[in-house]
Design goal:
The chain has two helices and no strands. It is an all-alpha fold.
Length: about 60
């Protein structure tokens, strides 16, 4: 397990949701930009990954030292 200092934890909790939003956006909006029809499975994968990353960040933010 990685031990984070409070300042490191704050940066992680602040920046990782931004990364999750970008990742979910790639899964969702790439379907509409590309010439392929929209895929429900890719949409669900993108949303599941987004929710998982936010869940992990929430757990990290809630840890006490």
């Amino acid at each position: 397990m990685v031990r984070l200092k409070p300042a490191q934890r704050r940066v992680l909790v602040d920046k990782v949701p931004d990364l999750a939003n970008i990742g979910a956006g790639l899964f969702v909006f790439a379907q509409f930009i590309g010439g392929q029809p929209a895929s429900l499975s890719l949409l669900l994968i993108g949303l599941a990954m987004w929710a998982a990353v936010l869940g992990v960040v929430t757990m990290i933010a809630g840890e006490e030292e």
